[in-house]
Amino acid sequence: MARALDLRETAAALERYRRRAGEVTVAGVVLLVLAVGVELLPTVAWTSDVIGWLVLLGLTALGFGIVTRAIGARMKHVLGAGTWSAHAAVPVGRAWGRATVVLASPGSGEVWPLKVVASRPRYDGVRPGPDAVLWWCGDPGLGGVIAPPGGGELFWAKPVRGRAARRRIVARAEREGLLSRPAPRSPQPAPEHVTPRPKPARRRWGVWRWVVLLAAVVLGLGIYGAERSMDDPQIDLTVLSRQEGDACTVSWKDPFDGTARTGPYQCHPEERHLGNWDTGFVVSYGPWKGDLYNAEWEGTPADEVVDWLGGLGALGLLGGLVAGGVSRWRRRAVTPVPYADPDAAARVSLKKARTEPSPAYALLAAHAERQAVPQTRTRRPEADVRGVAWWRVRGLRRLSGLDEVLVAAVACAGAGLGVWLGVGIPAYVMGVLMTGTLLRAGFRLLTTGRPVALLLARAATAPVPVVRRYALLYDPRGGTPVLVVFPAHGGPDDRPEGLLPLAPPGTPNRPRLGLPPAPTGSVELRGWLDRADDGLPIVVPWIEGRPLWPIEPYAEAGGSEFAERLEWLAPPEEDQEEVSAP
To answer: Fewer Cβ atoms within 10 A, N terminus or C terminus of the chain?
Structure first.
């Protein structure tokens, strides 16, 4: 049985995951270096606030990157040792908790409630598609990797802890019909179709990565000490006696526990006229907490240690990054060509060379019926594009990016209000981030979004429609709805005329809201005059008097690419027992 990591898309997804972790780690290091740079600048009123935010963001990014890299290493181990298996799945999301899915074990009748370890923006990627199937690799009692069909997006998942929580989640999944769903076919190829590949040499962390990591920790400790020293309390001292020079014996009240303390102190030479009174500072951090020192940092080694930590950390960080970059460049220059499976390439080329006709209307209509899910709710209809401007139509606003521009503008206004009210650095940071988002969204709206919206609006209001039949299918990865178009008058043996991927008209939690309730039926196609850069026509379908907005031009039948897309949407019966890595 082939390993899960042998699938090309799984290996690419793992590489993307590990690369993102490395980028976040480098971002954290860069922020810490910037904090050191700001520390070396002349002291300004806002310097300490900026350094604090840079250190906070840098340590957060560094910690997140290290944790993500550790998860990536666990993924690599699990995917390299196990195989993919397909499971019927039900999402059990929670408003403030982690995304949770329940998998049904094929054959045994067991159910596995699993928590997905991912950031909230990635939760939609683990939502089961129209076939309600997810792939799994690992031990459900310890944790493993979960992915949508195809293995192109990877998530680490671990079992839900707590007997009561498991019972509650499983009961909810059973109410949604998890156990009544048919067991999906295994995604693994048969052993005779797998060519064993040599086990790659174990990759280990280079010495410069450890140097960078250690230097970042040392630099963080130095910055932490420098920032904490700003909060050292200043106290009054009672001079008990003076020795030769400026050495004194003083007493003071400890600002942390309130006890009376006595000890040596280097008095200020200009304070002799004050008699038995002087002022000093008390260290508030680290192993030197409670040490007494004067304005020249005499009396404690804390300042000297902090300076050494910051200097050595910055020097080690710079040297590690430069040396590590050179070492990586030299390794890439001598890296051999990755192992390739010639038999697999031959099988792929033979598969693409098949000349079988496209699946008939009866087969695709039956597949659409299986994928259909009854909608218990309806969405408020959008404005009629034939009577209003394009920016008043909800679907066109979303496709053009106008909604993102409006949200970013409101956020910028809120940040400006925070600056005016004197909130401080958080308002400035939010303002900078939202301004960047607004500029990016505005550029996209002006260069791409608005022209596309105008094209779709013109196509939707074209006077002469072309009537066709349709079958509404869903992409196994992501659940994008796709209209497969057939001749208007024909029988069950008709072949498709074209494909038209659609933008889901619903909400993020219910993307199918607003789609036609029937998986098959009649559609009016309007447009055809405007064409995209690749020559494909711009077409807008109307079903039951409402337009559905496409996200791609109309793909007419013909060619190997059209056949591959159809095969991905509805695999032929003879291929469903094999893996088809897209």
So the answer is: N
CA distance 119 to 123: 7
- For residue 542, the cross-strand partners are 524, 547
C-alpha span between 441 and 445 (Å, rounded) = 6
Answer yes or no: is pLDDT of 49 > 80.
no
Q: How far is CA 563 from CA 165, 352, 354, 356, 357, in A?
A: 46, 9, 10, 9, 8
Long-range contacts, 377-384 (Cβ 8 Å, 24+)? 377/510, 377/513, 378/513, 378/514, 379/505, 379/506, 379/507, 379/513, 379/514, 381/546
- SS3 per residue for 396-421: HHHHHCHHHHHHHHHHHHHHHHHHHH
CA distance 218 to 318: 13
Residue 187: half-sphere exposure toward Cβ, Cα within 13 Å: 26
| Structural tokens at position 495 | 């072949």
Residues 6+ apart with CB under 8 A from 20: 68
Quick one: angle between helices 8-40 and 207-229, nearest 10?
40
What span, in angstroms and rounded, lies between the C-alpha atoms of 471 and 454?
A: 27
**Model's pTM, two decimal places?**
0.54
Residue 36 identity: V
pLDDT tens digits, residue range 303-313?
Answer: 888 888 878 88
Assigned token pair, 180: 């009544």
DSSP, collapsed to helix, strand or coil, labels residue 577 as coil
Q: Tell which residue, 377, 380, 536, 382, has the closest CA to residue 459.
A: 536
Beta bridge partners of 114: 101, 159
- Strand-pair partners of 368: none
**Among 546, 361, 401, which Cα is nearest to 460's?**
546
Q: With beta carbons less than 8 A apart as the criterion, state whether 361 and 492 touch.
A: yes
pLDDT in tens, 412-421: 898 888 878 7
**Cα–Cα distances in angstroms (integers) from residue 478 to residues 122, 123, 131, 147, 474, in the given order:** 12, 12, 11, 11, 8
